[in-house]
């Protein structure tokens, strides 16, 4: 990049768009080179791995690495592996998938908190490494801008390792040109120190080659003061490079994100340094890279030196001479111990050539370089000890070993000295002296350097109050000339002092003067320059109370099974909350009260203590309590005052006041004093008896909320809490609004104490008492109050436990909780908690997402996924891998739901791990309870839930089979008729079923197969519902090749359940699954072998399930099945209606049979219970009723008669009623009708058309018509001559639909026509062994023939069969689909025939007036 100098500051010579383009070119070229050079990438990964390994070796001795930390490092490794696969593959789809996976893995590390560590490794290093790999990733996606931004973010997060490990080339190109003045200053200062060490160096110039003068003996002869100078110089220089690198990285990011609409970002101000003596062009040419880059840290040193140097800023603090040995020993060169010379490696920094003396002895000449290899600091407090660098000899193996051993000893000693609170005065003086020396010459390199110097200095003494020892906040200058903090001098004067604290001169003024604004402005200016130091030494505006914020009591034995588990490791009796762990007996840090004042308080409080213990006057005792409370507060919990109060007599006196006083103020004050004493000294608890607890219980019941605090501090047992029946009053306390006292602050909020006590009762009680107490919480409407208490960190765990108990007691309360809760506190507890707390939070969150409204449930899931500073899904994944076995189903189910908030991708580590865990848990035969939990979770995942969270999956499946009522009752009761909800629920169900079925090629079906074989009835039933749901969804989703796996695993199990189960609902669930299987050809082949035994069972279920008919029909029509083996019928009823003559016509409609007779009678029969029961008999026709007709789209009945009339009837539940009579002038033998016309044939040729207005016309047909059938505007006429004519009623045209053979012209006829399912069925004279045919109405093609040797007189068709009545009195039966003859039924001469649509009954009437029925089931 081109830059331009103006004086001492740099300015860009191009605008920010040009800078962005230049950045894209420069960084893009670097990334492209890295992508092309696989060896370079592998080498860098190996070197970074060495640094991680070095840190791991140094840290694992002291700390145990958490599994979650290992998972983070694994994500980084997986991400880089996936990135390498994407780079090396040529398959576009694979590349995209691997890049997506790599991005997810790398983002986990990129977003780490840079101030913390993971497995001992600083997060800033992991984050920077992840950003570098993300830049490669975005380059592969052809997104240059994002690639550049990730590289710049790498330099911003970790400038030090970015310039020495990750991208030194970019740093030299983009950043180093801006830092010439810093480099020049450092070189001159370093030159000055080196010259002091080299003998006769007066004539050497800055550019002289140090290598020819600088040898080992010179290094080891360095004095401690010279070593410390060099150390401070290098630390200062390294900080400057890092800080300015970060500044420019942020500026370059602003340039990349530059928008014309926003103002331009100002270039970072370069440090103003004195110009170096050497010209800049010489500096640029002569100074080597190790000087430009600043201190270098070898890979083998890990990160410890950087972290130890400064926890908040990654410093470069080490001794140059130390770096020589460590870098050359451990990183830069491989040492040959026998020869004593280094071997250069290709990628190591160059080491100067060795020179031989006259005796052929090899002498190693080393180049002085900076390093961070050791966090070294000279111990100037021990002048008699030898300098550390004397131990860095490399001449032999023994000396090398001794050197390392002594180095470690020095390290430990130095680290110990750093942690000590009393630093050696001599060391401090030395450090201050050298720092001041460098401050006098060093430039101001920005805030980090200023801050570092300020931390080692002190504020001017005029800025510090002599009373408080803090920097002034509100300085006031008295008439004596002394300045004090206003609050401090006010307290001094309130004690009755009238003199100046320092001069002891009397003060004439009673009021303090105004603020010294001149001094205050000077202090403000100083604070701006020394931010960190000013915050540390500032006077606290509000003195801290010694009471911490409340923290929750650890509740023992809380697991997902609230009734069965006890935590044996949790000794709650010895537990003390964190709030009580702080030093409660201490003086205030801002107090100006002298020891004499404390003694005065002690003297003053003793009479009141005596009064409290001995007086029998209640009022005196009450006054004593109030005075004691006031003086206790004034003493700031002084140990002497505490010793006076913490006696058994005093405690008993306070208890006596509690039991006798009626003053609320006194009672609250007494509770306050007692709680203070109990917290400070636990032994006082032993003084209190069960009687005292009874007194406190009575006070709580009478409305003294503060009594809950004392009850909590007394650590009552469950039996004590139960005996006093405190739960209702504790709940009331939780619901009430507590107002803090202005006079004192209790050690904990009474509401918090009540919450902890309720949680204790719920935890320690049995299942019955837990349920009863939880119901008390809900009946008191305390759930909303508890939800609001989640904002308090300390009681959060107990609140969640109580809410969880409420959900278990009454599942419907989860809706109240879900609608009111803020999930952020729960997620914070989840991320920060231990394994047990996380398990409880997961169970609580799982319960919250068991809602009957899918949209609301998805909203909660989205909040769980997005909220919090950490990735909830990642934390769940880590927890899942180490959680107790009983927690696996809930955790995995929650993780799976979070992953499926978006459309399922080809690969998701969260989804794969969750489903795998569910399947593995389902296969654990030795843990049936775990299997049942998994099955419950799977059915809940379907999304069919009630308001109480109960799974409705089974009820929903039964609804599909015709059992509507159970499911409809839930839907109507909960008012779920919502289109949006239906769409969301359907989408979710398909999504969850898709991923479950397709995981590991249908592995879940094998697990379900094993569960169905279980001997447990409960498990088999739950597994049946789950398996049925998955099979149903599998065949409603696109085929992905899994159906074969499901069929092999479950088909036999469903057949077995159908045949063997005695439970009707189980049989129906099996039929739903089998109905899905019949669309699979391979499954049909297997079903054929079971067809005969299944068919009988299915016929019994036909009335119970609407899906059974489809299965029966499919089985009957299988080519491999003999249909005659499956046919089954039995003779039913037989009625004699001969008194009405011959039965001429039968109709079956809606559970009724209507018959017409030769005497003009029409009868209506009820077909219930598979027999005919006469409902109505009418006789309005004068002669025989020859035909009956009901249109498919109307309930009207049309009857034709020999009396030359057509009557129209209204068909009602109570019977039929004639509404119209039409005289058609001719006898009616056959009839069909619509809303406008009646079409009938008589004795002559042709068809008559009768309009309901009375107009009669003929259709020009010359043949004699024997039968009629109508659909829409088409009328089909069966005629003599074995032909079928088609009449277009709209166009009034006639065409031949079918024309038969003419061998027996005139003797053949079509006797019956029937239309159903777009097919035309014809029956008539038998020709060549076929008396009927089936035609397609759309194509007019013959579909098949009805084979029989007899003429067919009548036809009846239902959904499955075709029935044909012949002249011989035999009823032939054919399969409707295959047209295969399956049976024959003998009867007398048949005059009419009818069948119900479902094929359950067949009705036939004979010429002798009998009506007979056959049960086809």
Structural topology:
Blueprint: E1 3-6, E2 9-12, H1 16-36, H2 38-59, H3 67-88, H4 92-110, E3 117-118, E4 121-122, H5 123-140, H6 144-157, H7 159-166, H8 168-175, H9 180-197, H10 216-220, H11 224-256, H12 280-286, H13 289-292, H14 304-309, H15 320-330, E5 333-336, E6 341-344, E7 355-356, E8 362-363, H16 397-419, H17 425-441, H18 447-455, E9 475-477, E10 483-485, H19 486-494, H20 517-529, H21 531-537, H22 595-614, H23 618-634, H24 639-645, H25 648-660, H26 664-680, H27 690-701, H28 707-713, H29 718-723, H30 727-735, H31 750-764, H32 767-779, H33 783-788, H34 796-809, H35 813-820, H36 823-832, H37 835-848, H38 854-866, H39 872-880, H40 888-899, H41 909-922, H42 928-941, H43 953-960, H44 964-974, H45 979-998, H46 1003-1012, H47 1017-1034, H48 1043-1060, H49 1064-1077, H50 1081-1101, H51 1108-1116, H52 1123-1126, E11 1130-1136, E12 1143-1149, E13 1152-1157, E14 1162-1166, E15 1173-1178, E16 1185-1189, E17 1196-1201, E18 1205-1212, E19 1215-1223, E20 1230-1233, E21 1237-1241, E22 1247-1251, E23 1256-1259, E24 1265-1271, E25 1274-1279, E26 1283-1288, E27 1293-1299, E28 1310-1316, ...
